[in-house]
Amino acid sequence: MLEPAEDKNNVSSLQAMITSAIDFISALCYGQNVVKKTTNGWYSWRELYRTDSFCDHLLIDKEQHRVISKDKEERDTMKIGFIGAGKVGCTLGKFFTEGGIRMTGYYSRHIESAKAAADFTGTCCYDELSRLVHDSDAIFITVPDGTITSIYKELIKFDIRGKQICHCSGSISAGEAFPDAAETGALVYSIHPLFPISDKFTTYRELTDAFFCLEGDEKCVNEWKERLELMGAKTQVINPKDKVSYHAGCAMASNLVCALLHESIGLLKECGFSETGARKALAPLIRSNIGHILTDGPVKALTGPVERNDIGTVRKHIDCFRTNAEKELYCTVSSDLIQIAREKHPDTDFSEMENVLREELVNE
Ligand SMILES: NC(=O)c1ccc[n+]([C@@H]2O[C@H](COP(=O)([O-])OP(=O)(O)OC[C@H]3O[C@@H](n4cnc5c(N)ncnc54)[C@H](OP(=O)(O)O)[C@@H]3O)[C@@H](O)[C@H]2O)c1
Fold first, then answer.
1. Which of 29, 182, 232, 363 has a 20 to 30 A CA-CA distance from 173?
2. Ligand 1: which residue has its CA nearest to atom 46?
3. How close is the Cα of 84 to the center of ligand 1, in Å?
């Protein structure tokens, strides 16, 4: 008799769970003898549990419940190591392990950070850079932008022929960060998560919705594009020469909005709102506006006095600001809004509005 597909799945899930439980207990027992510093770094039972030779089939069991296909799993034997156990290192590491990508572990400036990241992702903590390089096929350098090249200069002291070297900065190309890479035999590229990663241990949950921008070695970029898309992420490959403009665009959509909202909350506080009261009051306005911009585009979404060509209200706004910096910010952004308003209402004459804003900017 044929079993219903759902029952079959339940039976195989149960079998996988029992196998996992047995391996988990074995790993714990086995780990008792070796939870200590070895020549390769600090190891815990979890690291052993992830070691291929120890219980390889467990990895396969786990991956059968993930998005990576059997075919992909068999092909994808690449092991990833991270240098820099900060927000991006921890977040991407967790995202990768959750997605079935194999990882070696972490090396960082402070061993405590590397250990915390290794525990979080169930990978190894390395106290020697050479070991991480030796064990990893791809090395992700997730340190602050200004430190990437100096770490790379440390890496080229080892044999990195055939290894993949990647950084995650949005504004620097791989060619710029990893000079003369061709001479080392390494394959270099960058993967920028277009996402505000604000927490080491929780942001990974939001990453399936994220967008990744890639550039660099063509083969690696194509490989990673496929890998990331299999995990549900969206990707775009860009020209290395466009990285700075791309990153400026990202900053405008995210960091610069913080400045405008900071001003906005400040003005409401001057009117008697508390900080949280102001945020709550503005929330529906912000959400609705962003929703319309994302759905319909900024031209269709634009409302307000500039769009209505209401010069009287704009003048009153300008007069209410206490500092020249606030006036300048308002007039500069409003001048830009005129371009959008013109697109929306090609028959309206916005030249007087334009003059009012320009005069204010000239007088500053
Ligand atoms: N955060 C974001 O939203 C975001 C988004 C996209 C891209 N990025 C990019 O991701 C990269 C990392 O940013 P992040 O936000 O993760 O920074 P972060 O949280 O400050 O982490 C940087 C990590 O680098 C480690 N580090 C610093 N100097 C080191 C050295 N000399 N050797 C080894 N490790 C060193 C630090 O280690 P210790 O903890 O051991 O001191 C720290 O944990 C940057 O290129 C950034 O542009 C960030």
1. 232
2. 169
3. 6
The total of structural domains in the chain comes to: 3
CATH number, position 228: 3.40.50.720
Q: Which of 12-16, 49-53, 146-150 has the highest mean pLDDT?
A: 146-150
Rounded to whole angstroms, how far apart are CA atoms 133 and 130?
Answer: 5
- The rounded Å distance from CA 338 to ligand 1 centre is 39
Q: Both tokens of residue 55?
A: 């219980």
169 lines ligand 1 (CB under 6 A): yes
- The per-residue pLDDT of the chain, averaged, comes to 85
- What's the pTM value of the predicted model, to 2 decimals? 0.78
- 187's CB contacts (< 8 A; 6+ apart) are 162, 163, 164, 165, 181, 216, 217, 219, 220
Asked whether residue 333 is assigned to any structural domain, the reply reads yes
Of the residues 238, 265, 300, the one at which a domain ends: 238
Pocket lining: 36 vs ligand 1, CB cutoff 6 Å: no
Q: What is the pLDDT of residues 277-299, one digit of tens each?
A: 999 999 999 999 999 999 999 99
Q: Is the pLDDT score of 84 beyond 70?
A: yes
Q: What is the CA(145)–ligand 1 centre distance, in A?
A: 8
Both 13 and 148 in one domain: the answer is no
